[in-house]
């Protein structure tokens, strides 16, 4: 990541381009990404959909949502492309014989089928939902599964930092308010440092996890090095745009895994830590471009759902598609 700090935005995105797998006939279903978004409660059904849809639109092969039954019924009406699993339970909705242990076991059983999980979109603060996610994080770490925390998933990092501390396969995506809460939980004074330094301090306090501090520009830090993602975005601050970021990050983390496993022929010059920073930067760049494109089209009427249709155009704009074997002939 250190070397990236001396590079231009164009050059960093050029390295992201190298990380993205080409579209090859030899790949089979699931190799280019199996993602699950864990969230979705009675009150919040849009957020997990936006995240999972962004993951799919960026090229993830299999995009799942693990949510409350009530949320699942609604999310299934949004798109037939997502696989929806109604395994989560709010405390009041635990049925006869169901316990937090049994609910957590159902979700944890899915981890072996997944490359990356996103925790938080539409999750809420319900104690049972939070506890199940805490247990999922513990098991994900044992299995080396990468995860992204956002929204109420960040509440776990705030109140139970030991869940994420020191786990490098983790990206946190706080907005300004969420960042302030996380910083306070780590005794960091947000009034005394500039934003980039604050992001670095929080990442350090959490043992080197990657933090994306969202804002006018996005600061990205692992505690040792900090990048600034300053591509133009839209001017509308409608809720839910961060869900496009989490889904984009999840797919890029899948591509990172494919790169490290050398599923296609490449030079292999990029290491695990550098690739993690490239995922964070690439996800930020794609999301900012989604917002720019949607705002250019819709202006102040832009909503979070409008970013979804722009994920692929944004990817083409800021990263670019590799030529297929046929196009080389």
UniProtKB/TrEMBL annotation:
Compartments reported by the entry: Cytoplasm
InterPro entries documented for this protein: Carbohydrate_kinase_pred_CS, CARKD, Ribokinase-like
First-tier enzyme category under EC: lyase
Reaction catalyzed: (6S)-NADPHX + ATP = ADP + phosphate + NADPH + H(+); (6S)-NADHX + ATP = ADP + phosphate + NADH + H(+)
EC id: 4.2.1.93
Keywords: ATP-binding, Cytoplasm, Lyase, NAD, NADP, Nucleotide-binding, Phosphoprotein
Single Gene Ontology BP annotation: metabolite repair
Any single Pfam family the record assigns to this protein: Carb_kinase
Binding site for ATP: 214-218, 233-242
GO molecular function: ATP binding; ATP-dependent NAD(P)H-hydrate dehydratase activity
Cofactor: Mg(2+)
Binding site for (6S)-NADPHX: 122, 175-181, 243
Domain of life: Eukaryota
GO cellular component, one term: cytoplasm
Domain YjeF C-terminal: 12-318
Family: Belongs to the NnrD/CARKD family.
HAMAP family: NADHX_dehydratase
Described purpose of this protein according to its UniProt entry: Catalyzes the dehydration of the S-form of NAD(P)HX at the expense of ATP, which is converted to ADP. Together with NAD(P)HX epimerase, which catalyzes the epimerization of the S- and R-forms, the enzyme allows the repair of both epimers of NAD(P)HX, a damaged form of NAD(P)H that is a result of enzymatic or heat-dependent hydration.
Protein name: ATP-dependent (S)-NAD(P)H-hydrate dehydratase
């Amino acid at each position: 990541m250190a070397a990236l700090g001396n590079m231009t935005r164009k050059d960093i995105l050029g390295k992201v381009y190298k990380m993205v797998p080409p579209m090859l006939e030899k790949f089979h279903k699931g190799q280019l990404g199996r993602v699950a978004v864990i969230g979705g409660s009675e009150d919040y059904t849009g957020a997990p959909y936006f995240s999972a849809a962004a993951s799919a639109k960026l090229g993830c092969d299999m995009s799942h949502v693990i949510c409350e039954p009530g949320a699942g019924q609604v999310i299934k009406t949004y798109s037939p492309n997502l696989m929806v699993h109604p395994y989560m339970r709010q405390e009041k909705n635990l049925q006869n014989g169901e316990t937090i242990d049994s609910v957590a076991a159902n979700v944890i059983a899915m981890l072996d089928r997944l490359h990356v999980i996103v925790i938080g979109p539409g999750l809420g603060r319900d104690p049972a939902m939070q506890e199940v996610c805490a247990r999922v994080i513990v098991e994900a770490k044992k299995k080396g599964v990468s995860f992204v925390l956002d929204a109420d998933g960040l509440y776990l990092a705030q109140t139970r930092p030991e869940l994420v501390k020191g786990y490098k396969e983790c990206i946190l995506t706080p907005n300004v308010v969420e960042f302030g809460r996380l910083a306070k939980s780590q005794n960091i004074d947000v009034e005394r440092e500039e934003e980039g330094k604050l992001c670095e301090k929080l990442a350090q306090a959490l043992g080197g996890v990657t933090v994306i501090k969202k804002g006018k520009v996005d600061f990205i830090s692992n505690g040792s090095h900090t990048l600034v993602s300053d591509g133009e975005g839209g001017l509308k601050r409608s809720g839910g745009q961060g869900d496009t970021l989490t889904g984009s990050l999840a797919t890029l983390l899948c591509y990172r895994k494919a790169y490290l496993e050398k599923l296609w022929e490449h030079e292999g010059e990029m290491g695990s830590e550098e690739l993690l920073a490239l995922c964070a930067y690439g996800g930020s760049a794609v999301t900012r471009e989604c917002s720019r494109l949607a705002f250019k089209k819709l202006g102040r009427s832009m909503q979070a759902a409008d970013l979804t249709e722009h994920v692929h155009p944004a990817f083409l704009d800021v990263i670019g598609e590799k030529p297929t074997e046929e196009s080389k002939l």
